[in-house]
Structures are given as structure tokens and as C-alpha cells.
């Protein structure tokens, strides 16, 4: 199965940190077409929707730090990631670190979202790369991820 851009960045983080991983998968899959996916994502965002997540959520209580990744669509995490954040009350008080892929929005509002939703958490500097760079130059992105993680003390 083809790995998406954000999943590939998650893989790089996991390889460097030996972290456990959990993939947020929507119960109803997004369309295969990029254009159709962006239409669905825009509609979900306009409706402030919280799409259902497929499968059981992880128990985050045993972790001090949680990396939270996603593509950035119109400056925002996908709404299915917001579903995860809404359901994971155990994130408050943890160290939270965002990572994203985008085509121009950078980290979007991820830092603000995490700080507002989890005021007792420490939100550290996130990482972002364009999806095209991940796709076309993964070794460069892996190197950037490793440097970022080195700077964070990993």
C-alpha cells in the first residue's frame, strides 16, 4: 500500500525516536482523487464536522510526549484529527508536538489549536514539509526531520 506524505513523515519520526505509532483513520475513507478529497475536507471544515475514527483510540496515559500529525488543509488539521483531539482528554498535561505536510500552509494553526485545547500541556516547536518535497525528495525530508528532532533533544 502506498504511504501518504504525512505517514512518511511519521515513519521518519518513529525511526528516529523508536516511538509507538497510531494512525488516525476516518471511518469513512476520503476519496482517492485529490480534488474530491479537498472538496470533502473543505465541506467538513465549513461545517466544523467531527468525522468518526475507524477503530479503537490508543491509551495515551502512558506517554509523556505525543506527536500529532496531519496534512494541513486551509490552514487547519483535517477535521478527523480534531475528532481525535476532542476524544483524547488524556493529552492535557503532556508535551505535544505537531508535524504536518502542506502545499503552502506550513504548520497552519496547529500550535494555537493544541495550546487552546490543552492549556496544561507544553506545546513544542513542530515540523512541516511540503507534500511534494516528501514525495519527490524523501531523503532530504528525513534529514530535516532528524535535525529537528536533534534540536528537540531526541
Structural key phrases:
42% helix, 154 residues, alpha/beta, 3 strands, three-stranded parallel beta sheet, globular
Instruction: Kindly provide the radius of gyration, computed on alpha-carbon positions and rounded to a whole number of angstroms.
Output: 15 Å
Pattern of helices and strands: HHEHEHEHH
Mean pLDDT: 94
Helix content: 40-55%
Tell me the distance between the termini. 29 Å
Could you say which overall geometry the principal axes of the C-alpha atoms support?
Answer: globular
Total E-strand runs: 3
Q: Report strand %.
A: 15-25%
Strand line-up of the largest beta sheet: 1-2-3
What's the helix count? Answer: 6
Low-confidence residue ranges: none
Pfam families: Flavodoxin_4
Protein name: Flavodoxin-like domain-containing protein
Domain Flavodoxin-like: 4-135
GO molecular function: FMN binding; oxidoreductase activity, acting on NAD(P)H
Amino acid at each position: 500500500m502506498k504511504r501518504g506524505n504525512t505517514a512518511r513523515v511519521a515513519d521518519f519520526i518513529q525511526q528516529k525516536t523508536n516511538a509507538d505509532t497510531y494512525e488516525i483513520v476516518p471511518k469513512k475513507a476520503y476519496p482517492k482523487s485529490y480534488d474530491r478529497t479537498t472538496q470533502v475536507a473543505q465541506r467538513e471544515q465549513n461545517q466544523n464536522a467531527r468525522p468518526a475514527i475507524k477503530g479503537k483510540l490508543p491509551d495515551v496515559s502512558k506517554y509523556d510526549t505525543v506527536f500529532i500529525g496531519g496534512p494541513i488543509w486551509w490552514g487547519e488539521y483535517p477535521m478527523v484529527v480534531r475528532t481525535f483531539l476532542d476524544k483524547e482528554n488524556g493529552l492535557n498535561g503532556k508535551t505535544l508536538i505537531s508535524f504536518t505536510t502542506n502545499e503552502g500552509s506550513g504548520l497552519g494553526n496547529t500550535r494555537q489549536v493544541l495550546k487552546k485545547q490543552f492549556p496544561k500541556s507544553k506545546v513544542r516547536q513542530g515540523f512541516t514539509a511540503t507534500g511534494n518535497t516528501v514525495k519527490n525528495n524523501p531523503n532530504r525530508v528525513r534529514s530535516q526531520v532528524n535535525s529537528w528532532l536533534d534540536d528537540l533533544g531526541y
